[in-house]
Amino acid sequence: MTTQKNALVTGANKGIGLETARRLAAMGFKVWLGARDAERGEAVAQALRGEGFDVEWLELDVTSNDSVAAAVKTVAARAPALEVLVNNAGIAPGYVEALGPDGRYERPPSRESVDDMKATYDVNVFGPVRVTQAFLPLLLATPAARVVMVSSYMGSIARASGDSQSPNLMSYGSSKTALNAITVAFARELSPRGIAVNAAAPGYTATDLNGGRGHRTVQQAAEIIVRLATLEAGGPTGGYFDENGPLPW
Questions:
Q1: Does the active-site annotation cover 105?
Q2: What distance in Å separates the CA atoms of residue 122 and residue 68, rounded to the nearest whole number?
Q3: Pairwise CA distance, residues 188 & 185, whole Å
Q4: How much is the pTM?
Q5: Which listed residue (95, 105, 172, 240) is catalytic?
Q6: 1 pLDDT above the threshold of 50
Q7: Helix, strand, or coil here: 61?
């Protein structure tokens, strides 16, 4: 008799997170939809259950220690282990407002808000650390858990320094660079314990984060995330990938 595997996706009530949750559920996982908004989170969970998937909304604010601790208790009471954690929740305050008529980002680093930068790091950097640390006992309760940090091409310093056409988003880009470093740090610690930790770059995807300006679909974006979330034994860890392979740091 097999035991159903559990997956948690943060920021799962829309966009890439929702599609990732749907794909994992279609593969047989019970998926916990991490989201702050109860009305939207439960509505999404009900919709996916209507498609025949085993999903449940999980109240989760990645910026709150108390919220994360409560979420751990909720999952632990219902699941013996967590096989997959996808740290997807992310924000880019002021991004849409800074887009010009041609869709290019027009706010230089010298004009970015420090308050926006702090808010960005709280979600995009400290959030994944907070969630991964809190759920670690459940991840260690299974032989080969997988953790995916949803990064971005803009997290690549090599890309930013070598491509003058790449958008110069100091807050968002540097938050994803920090997330990449965090990916490596967790991978170094957890690889000997059977947990693979990798960063995924889903590409410029049409989501609320960019006002729907992205040229990729959420289905395309979720491909590399799901692939890393379901790696076979012996797969990579401590890497940074898009669907075509490794990316330069």
A1: no
A2: 13
A3: 5
A4: 0.95
A5: 172
A6: no
A7: coil
